[in-house]
Design goal:
Largest sheet of chain A: 7 strands, mixed
Order of helices and strands of chain A: EHHEHEHEEEEEEEHHHEEHEEH
Structural class of chain A: alpha/beta
Distance between the termini of chain A: 48 Å
Strand content of chain A: 15-25%
Number of strands of chain A: 14
Shape of chain A: globular
CATH architecture of the largest domain in chain A: 3-Layer(aba) Sandwich
Oligomer: homodimer
CATH superfamily of the largest domain in chain A: Type I PLP-dependent aspartate aminotransferase-like (Major domain)
Chain lengths: 364, 364
């Protein structure tokens, strides 16, 4: 069977997204392409309204609720269009025609969210780290009590920053958690709306998770096109129109993998261990320097530079020899980025750390 | 060879969508889940901006252009959200704030398209078969010369009707071809915009094709949110944000399968053959009656009723014994529906015809 064969060479996949998924998930995904649930049909060619697909989707929803310990008054839907479509759906659903939206700007994705909100109505950036190259998470700002909602981006993939704690927020609190959902314990009940593109910790590209507190919709006085209205998708259990079945299935498998290994407590400890391994080396190795402020460092995406840029080719060569993939920094920041999402094993981080050590010995 | 590894039991998959895909496509899709392009990485865990994925997407675009014989002045993009999101994007991009959109209403999906256009501006239904239960395609109407565009639905999955020819249209002509694109030869140059959810003839659920004539955008005087603007996706070659990589890949494989077997001429002849086999039996078997007007019958979805509804259970039992799947009619029409999309082999239609014959002998 082609699906039981592991890749011949182990690649250490530090890709920033779409990113590494557990091997057992990939094996099961492959099997479903030819024979889903022993139906003798591929998952790619069965109706989304068939019993097996509906049950699979329901199971994915309950895994989300279970893993995030969601209170009863939250709806969970699977959408399309990525976080970029959520940048639009959030103000469409929550920004009153005469209201104001409040945003914290912590990077490229937050800026794009601001732009879409501005297209619909009054939008204030109440805090920003843009002047400092988005190298930290702003703190100590005042959240306007009369704003319709506050929007934040919990982890910033490009700059390597992450909220270590969330501000106390008395107004509806909205978070783009695309790149760190399911990576650590947090109190979901503090949020009115959470959304996340799947392609980091949850699954493959092509599906977006939205978690919506009951009672927050229908208050804007705004006409909302059918597909942009969260209520449409809530009312039809994510099946108003054909959902991205395969992407939901792979997400469900990934959440099953997470749960069966010990859930959020297990993955949080493992992600902490990986981050400590990496940042420990970064801080003790004189060849490198970090980009993000130490107190806001992301456990998901570690951004760093070579102090001597002339050695970049040498470092890249050593990475390649060690089968390390996806370490190139985002073009807007440069340097390197080690994305250490849930499915990346600590062994891969160790291989990277070993290369950094060796690089230091050789060129230091 | 598409038949190299067949499932243990051959299921005749008449599902209305997501629907049958070629066996060789499913095999290749499975392989890509564990090892894409011999990278030792899954397609589900590599960056959409990696060389291999960009080349794969470009190849999918050129297959679309090639198979549809598109003139040079058309852009091809892969989007998310299904035809339902296109119902919104079309008026957002083409309906001037003080203009009028013209729609032909031929069923549930056309009605939904009308609804979204009405949400944005002045929208006229210039012809409709609603009063006759959408059992035919309206003809002989006048297309208003001052409308911003005319929108039609080329094939109506629920009612089993299909345009056998398209009206002459002097204004921008828009078609939802979700359920019959790539099934027959047509003159794409007559259209300003064509869109199609993939999950019938092109691939799995989760990706939507849009074909846009150059020069038609940017004329509405309307603010268009970033993700709803076709220009956004054209400018970034479908990679403004993370595209649904796997669904694009399976679509590319399906289009490769189509091309390697002889392209549109081959599939049109095969689809014609299948339709003649089925409708030939339907018209000669006294147990059944068709729903759609004969001259507008769809080659993709054949809708029919049992004259004696008390025999429904018996017919269903015989279908099941013959491993025929997905023949239940849509809940809004009832009866039966045989969806005969591109990948359905003529052999499966023959099995259905044989069951209908046997049913006639047994209960006639």
């Amino acid at each position: 069977m082609e699906t039981s064969v592991m890749p011949a060479t182990k690649v250490h996949n530090f890709s920033a997204g779409p990113s590494i998924l557990p091997q057992e998930v990939l094996q099961k995904a492959a099997l479903a392409c030819t024979n889903f649930n022993n139906l003798n049909l591929s998952l790619l060619e069965v109706s989304h309204r068939s019993k097996d697909v509906v049950e699979m989707t329901d199971h994915a929803v309950s895994l989300v609720k279970d893993l995030l310990n969601l209170p009863e008054d939250y709806d969970v839907v699977f959408l399309q269009g990525g976080a970029s479509m959520q940048f639009l759906m959030v103000p469409y659903n929550l920004l009153r025609t005469d209201g104001t939206a409040a945003y914290v700007n912590t990077g490229t994705w937050a800026s794009k969210a601001v732009k879409e909100a501005r297209g619909l109505g009054n939008t204030e950036v109440i805090a920003s780290s843009e002047m400092q190259g988005f190298n930290h998470i702003p703190k100590g700002y005042t959240i306007p009590a009369d704003a319709d909602y506050l929007h934040i981006t919990s982890n910033n993939t490009i700059y390597g920053t992450q909220y270590q704690g969330f501000p106390e927020c008395e107004i509806p609190f909205v978070a783009d958690m695309s790149s760190d959902i399911f990576s650590r314990r947090f109190d979901a009940s503090k949020f009115s709306l959470i959304y996340a593109g799947a392609q980091k910790n949850m699954g493959p590209a092509g599906v977006t998770l939205a978690i919506i507190k009951k009672g927050i919709l229908g208050k804007t006085g705004r006409y909302i096109p059918t597909m942009l209205n969260y209520q449409t998708h809530i009312d039809k259990d994510s099946m108003f129109n054909t959902p991205p079945v395969f992407a939901i299935y792979v997400s469900m498998l990934t959440l099953e993998w997470l749960k069966s290994n010990g859930g959020i407590d297990w993955i949080e400890a493992r992600n902490k261990q990986k981050a400590e391994m990496f940042y420990g080396e970064l801080d003790s190795n004189e060849m490198f320097e970090g980009i993000a402020a130490i107190e806001d460092r992301s456990r998901m995406n570690a951004t760093f530079l070579l102090k001597n840029k002339n050695l970049e080719e040498d470092f890249n060569k050593m990475l390649k020899e060690a089968n390390i993939s996806g370490l190139k920094g985002h073009r807007s920041v440069g340097g390197f980025r080690a994305s250490m999402y849930n499915a990346l094993p600590p062994e891969s981080v160790q291989v990277l750390v070993d290369v950094m050590k060796e690089f230091g010995k050789k060129f230091g």
